[in-house]
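Support request, please re-run this one:
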Amino acid sequence: MIIKSQDIALILGIITGSVGFIISVIEFIKSNRIKRAQYLKDVLDKLRTDTFNTDIEYLLEYDVEERKSWYNEKFHHSDLEKKMDRFLSNINYFCYLRNQKIIGKREFKFLRYEIERVCLNEQVQAYLWNLYHYSLQYTSDCPFQQIIDYGIKNNLFRRGFQINRINLFKKMLKF
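Re-run finished. Output below.
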């Protein structure tokens, strides 16, 4: 069997095209990883350097007297509620990204500490419990449902969080 120059050119073209395609896929994957790493860095920077976020993080982590009692009758419609809602919105978004598999398990590990510290905070649990049951009463979506789902799934909330009748926390909203 004689191989013609046309056949050789065709085979070389297929090989070259295949190699080029494989190199393109590899470069695309590398580029995507770099973009994801930059995105994660931006997310972490926002969480750790934004004044609103750091003020709330320090309240939850370090301010012992305030931490024990910030969720009280004066909380709703206060500046602290606005700051807390903004902070929890960010945390909720990170949980959403994980649930949608936009960020993977390895990437989520960078955020897990902050998220779990939030979920384990008694005052945050009380606030989320009130919002959760208020939302259920009025058949609306809870604004921080992704955090709540994460806390329940990972056993970070008090036992019975989803049950209204045990009055796990003091009711601050009418439901």
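The chain has seven helices and no strands. The helical segments are 5-49, 51-61, 64-69, 79-99, 105-120, 122-137, 145-153.
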